[in-house]
Amino acid sequence: MNLQIEATGDVTVVEPVGRLDFDAAPGFQEALERAMGGAGKPPGAVIVDGARLEYVSSAGLRAFLLTARAAQRSGIAFSLCALQPAVREVFELSGFSRIIPVHADRASALAQAQQGRT
Amino acid sequence: MTARRTAVSADAAQLTVLHQFLRDFGSAVALDAAEVRTFELVLEEIFLNIVMHGSQPGSTPVVEVSLHRAAESVTMIVEDDGPQFDPLSLPPPDVTASLADRRVGGLGVFLVRNLMDTVSYTCVAGRNQLRMSKRLGG
Question: What is the pTM for the complete model shown?
Answer without folding.
Answer: 0.94
